[in-house]
C-alpha cells in the first residue's frame, strides 16, 4: 500500500459503548430494540396508549409503532445494546490492544444522545464531551488517528418520538448543532470525520421491501435523505471553517451489483440499481448536486421533494473531501424469475453460483471490492477509504483460551490483496478500517455470536459474560500485515 497508509479498525457507539443511561446519556432507537438472530428479526418495543406492551419488527431503522404508543424498555425483553461490550468503561484497555496491533487509525462514532440526550437542547452534556475527549486523548497517546462518524444509526429517541425523526426539516438544525459541537470541542484531537454512516441504507431498504414500498414510502425516504444531505453538507462546511485540516467524508454502504444475465433488460436493471442504491447518495455528496437520473427515480414513484434554493447552495458548498464506504458483499440483479434468493446487509438478490456465502448468508466476494474501488475512483477521483469490511463468524474458545480463526484471516487476506491490486491500478486508497476490530453487537441481528473481531469479548447473546478481552489468531496476523504495510499477508 502507499506510504502512510492508514491501517486500523472500526466500531460504532451504539454497538460497543454500552452505558446507555450513564452520565446523562439519553436513549436512542437501539435501546428499545431487542436481540434477534439470522432467522428471527429484532423488535422495537413500546407501550400502547392503553398501557399494553407490544413490539414490531425493527426492519432496520425506520419502522413505526402504533398511533399514541410510546417507545419503551420492557421488563422481560433483552436489549443487547444497553451494555454492548462496555467500551465506555474499557476504552483504555481496548485502545492499548489496538495500539499493540499497530493501528494508525481507529474508527468510532459519537453517540448523539450522549452529547444531546434529547437532541434539541441548546447546550451539550459536558460528561459526554469529557468521555470522547478522553477517548481521543488515549488514541493520541499511541499516535492513532481517530476517524469519527458523527451519526451511526443513533438519532436520539426523543427526536424520533417528538419530531418524527428525519421526516422533519428541524432535524437538520439539531444535527448541525451536534456536528458543530463535535468539530469545536474535539478540534486538534480529530482530523478525519464521516457525516452519516451508510446514508444510502434508506434507499436500499426500499429495494428490500420490493413491491410493498410504494409512492408513500418513496416520498418519505427521499425527503428524509434530502434532509440528511443538507445536514451533511452543512456539517462539511462547518468542519472546514472550524479547522482547515479536517478531512470529511461521506459513508456509503458499498455493494457491488452484477447483472444476472446478459439480457439487455438485466443490464439496464443493474445500472438502475447502481444509480438508485449507490450513486444517488455519492453523487450528491461528492458532486454537490442531484444527478440527472434523480428525476427518473423520483418520477417512477411520483416523488415531489421539498428542496429550497438555500438547500441547493448548501449541497454545492458542502461537498466531501473523501469517499468512504463499507464493503461486505456483491449482489445479483435480474429481471428473471429467481428461485434461490439470498439477502444480507440491506440488499437481496439471486444466489451467485461462483461465490461462497458466510453463515449469515453474505456473499464473500473480494474481487467485488476491487471492482467497487476502481469504479468509484473513476467516477469521483477523490481519496477513498474502506471503513468497514469483515467477516461475521462463530468463534470457538479452546480449552487453553486460544481462538483459532483461520477463516477470518483468509477473508482479510483476499480482500487486502484486491485492495492492493486496485491501488496498483491507480486508485488513491488511503485507509482501511476493518469492521468490528473488537467483537461487538451486530447491527442487523443484535447477536454477539456473530463475531467480527481480532479481539474476542466474553459477552454472550443471553447477556452473560465477564467482558474479558482476549486475542484471536487474527490479532497477531493483522499486526504483521500492518508492520509490513500490507506486503506480508501469509
Ligand atoms: C453495517 C453497519 C455496521 C455493522 C455492519 C455489519 O451495515 O454500518 O454498523 O454492524 O454493517 O453488520 P451486522 O452487524 O449486521 O453483521
Topology:
Layout: E1 6-10, H1 13-16, E2 43-47, E3 53-57, E4 70-71, H2 87-101, E5 105-109, H3 112-115, H4 126-141, E6 145-151, H5 157-163, H6 170-185, E7 192-196, H7 201-208, H8 215-242, E8 247-259, H9 264-287, H10 293-300, H11 309-317, E9 322-333, E10 341-344, E11 347-350, E12 356-357, E13 363-364, H12 366-380, E14 384-388, H13 406-424, E15 429-435, E16 455-457, E17 469-471, H14 473-483
Parallel strand pairs: 1-5, 1-15, 5-6, 6-7, 7-8, 8-9, 9-14, 14-15
Antiparallel strand pairs: 2-3, 2-4, 10-11, 12-13, 16-17
Helix pairs in contact: 2-4, 6-8, 8-11, 12-13
6-O-phosphono-beta-D-galactopyranose binds at residues 12, 15, 197-198, 253, 326, 345, 388, 392, 435, 442-445, 450.
Amino acid at each position: 500500500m502507499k506510504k502512510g497508509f492508514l491501517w486500523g479498525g472500526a466500531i460504532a457507539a451504539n454497538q460497543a459503548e454500552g452505558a446507555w443511561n450513564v452520565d446523562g446519556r439519553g436513549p436512542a432507537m437501539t435501546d428499545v430494540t431487542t436481540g434477534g438472530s439470522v432467522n428471527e428479526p429484532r423488535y422495537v418495543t413500546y407501550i400502547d396508549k392503553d398501557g399494553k406492551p407490544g413490539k414490531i419488527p425493527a426492519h432496520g431503522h425506520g419502522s413505526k409503532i402504533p398511533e399514541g404508543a410510546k417507545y419503551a424498555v420492557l421488563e422481560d425483553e433483552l436489549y443487547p445494546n444497553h451494555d454492548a461490550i462496555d467500551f465506555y468503561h474499557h476504552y483504555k484497555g481496548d485502545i492499548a490492544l489496538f495500539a499493540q496491533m499497530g493501528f494508525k487509525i481507529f474508527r468510532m462514532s459519537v453517540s448523539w444522545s450522549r452529547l444531546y440526550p434529547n437532541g434539541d437542547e441548546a447546550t451539550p452534556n459536558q460528561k459526554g464531551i469529557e468521555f470522547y475527549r478522553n477517548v481521543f486523548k488515549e488514541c493520541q497517546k499511541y499516535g492513532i488517528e481517530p476517524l469519527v462518524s458523527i451519526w451511526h444509526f443513533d438519532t436520539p429517541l426523543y427526536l424520533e418520538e417528538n419530531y418524527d425523526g428525519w421526516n422533519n426539516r428541524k432535524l437538520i438544525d439539531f444535527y448541525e448543532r451536534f456536528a458543530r459541537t463535535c468539530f469545536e470541542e474535539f478540534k486538534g484531537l480529530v482530523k478525519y470525520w464521516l457525516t452519516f454512516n451508510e446514508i444510502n441504507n434508506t434507499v436500499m431498504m426500499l429495494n428490500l421491501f420490493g413491491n410493498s414500498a410504494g409512492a408513500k414510502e418513496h416520498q418519505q425516504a427521499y425527503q428524509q435523505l434530502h434532509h440528511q444531505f443538507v445536514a451533511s453538507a452543512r456539517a462539511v462546511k462547518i468542519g472546514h471553517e472550524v479547522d482547515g485540516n479536517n478531512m470529511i467524508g461521506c459513508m456509503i454502504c458499498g455493494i457491488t451489483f452484477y447483472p444476472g444475465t446478459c439480457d439487455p433488460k438485466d443490464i439496464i436493471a443493474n445500472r438502475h440499481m447502481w444509480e438508485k442504491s449507490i450513486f444517488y447518495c455519492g453523487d450528491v455528496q461528492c458532486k454537490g448536486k442531484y444527478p440527472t437520473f434523480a428525476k427518473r427515480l423520483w418520477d417512477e414513484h411520483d416523488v415531489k421533494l421539498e428542496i429550497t434554493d438555500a438547500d441547493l447552495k448548501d449541497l454545492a458548498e458542502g461537498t466531501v473531501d473523501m469517499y468512504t464506504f463499507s464493503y461486505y458483499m456483491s449482489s445479483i440483479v435480474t429481471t428473471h424469475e429467481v428461485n434461490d434468493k439470498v439477502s444480507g446487509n440491506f440488499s437481496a438478490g439471486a444466489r451467485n453460483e461462483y461465490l461462497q456465502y458466510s453463515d449469515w448468508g453474505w456473499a464473500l466476494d473480494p474481487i467485488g471490492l476491487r471492482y467497487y474501488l476502481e469504479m468509484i475512483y473513476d467516477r469521483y477521483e477523490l481519496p477513498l477509504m474502506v471503513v468497514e469490511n469483515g467477516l461475521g463468524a462463530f468463534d470457538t474458545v479452546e480449552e487453553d483460551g486460544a481462538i483459532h480463526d483461520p477463516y477470518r484471516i483468509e477473508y482479510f487476506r483476499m480482500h487486502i490483496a484486491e485492495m492492493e491490486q486496485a491501488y496498483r491500478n491507480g486508485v488513491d486508497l488511503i485507509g482501511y478500517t476493518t469492521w468490528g476490530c473488537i467483537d461487538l453487537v451486530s447491527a442487523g441481528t443484535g447477536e454477539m455470536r456473530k463475531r467480527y473481531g481480532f479481539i474476542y469479548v466474553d459477552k454472550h447473546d443471553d447477556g452473560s459474560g465477564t467482558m474479558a478481552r482476549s486475542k484471536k489468531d487474527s490479532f497477531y496476523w493483522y499486526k504483521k500485515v500492518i508492520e509490513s504495510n500490507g506486503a506480508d499477508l501469509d
